[in-house]
Each structure stands twice: as C-alpha cells, then as structure tokens.
Amino acid sequence: MIKYSKDECKRANDIKYQISKIGNHKFYDFVVGRYGQKRDWVRKNFSKSLLLKKTKFRDFLIEAGIEFLNDKQNYDIMHPTIVLVYNHEQDYSSFLSAKESIENQGMFPICPQLATKLPNSELYNFFLDKFINEHKILIVVGEVAEYKAKYGDGVIVFGYRKGIYHEILRLKG
Question: Which domain of life is it from (predicted)?
C-alpha cells in the first residue's frame, strides 16, 4: 500500500478547488506562460479527481497553484468586488438569492443595506456613495432607474439577472 500525507492531499485538493472557481483555462495559461509546461500535461493531470498519491503533478500543483492564487492580477480580474442593493422591501428575498448566487460565482458583493440595517438613512447613503465611488459597479435587485439617474456618470449600474457575472468579467478584464 502506498503511503500518502493527508495534509498534502487535502492541501492539493483545496488548491485545485480554488483554481476551479477562478477558471481552469486561466490556470493552464498561467502554467504554460510561467513554467513552460505543456498544456495537455497540465489539463490531463488536473482533471484527475483525487490527488491521493505523492506525484510530480501534486507537488507541482501545490507550488504553481499557490503562486497562481497569490497573483493579485488573477484574483482582481476573477473576483471583482461589486455593490449590491435592493430597491424595495418586496425585492428582499430576490436580493438574498442574488447575493448567494453572486458569491457562488466568485464575486464579492458589498451590501450596505445589510451592514447598516437602515435603508434610505443618512448612514446608508454615505456608505453606498463611498462604496460605489470606490468600486464603480452597482447591481440593483429591482428597478434600476433611480440608481442610474443618481450614479449614471462613471458608475456601471446593472439590474440583477442571470449571466451578469460574465458581463462584469468582460468589463473588468
């Protein structure tokens, strides 16, 4: 029986999972460019389900994966920060599911309404303005006209819908 380190196995699988959330093809491009490895070798070994045995690829994945995940350029492009709000009280349940969906896609939503618990208050408006000026992307669950009128210049305002992740990546990348 082959001995393996559970810690190394877990670490390699965690790295593989984090890379998968960013995008395997992006990792393949990174490895080919940085290490000169053949794309087919990386793709074939990466697609194996478990990394139980100590192999050349598992060691390589840990080294290259950490470097890839620590590369700020990859992280900023693939994990954009957006501001997420809902327009009316009846949009709240849709807002919560939108927040979960956006987080599952790898984006980081800042939700000033949840943080301040005071919708349409002075404090809420202060935080909303601050975050929007910093991140420049606002996603609204519900009617967007009011927000487009208020933040139209220099801020990208979207109504929440499926597939918005790809639009945001296109704008950020």
Answer: Bacteria
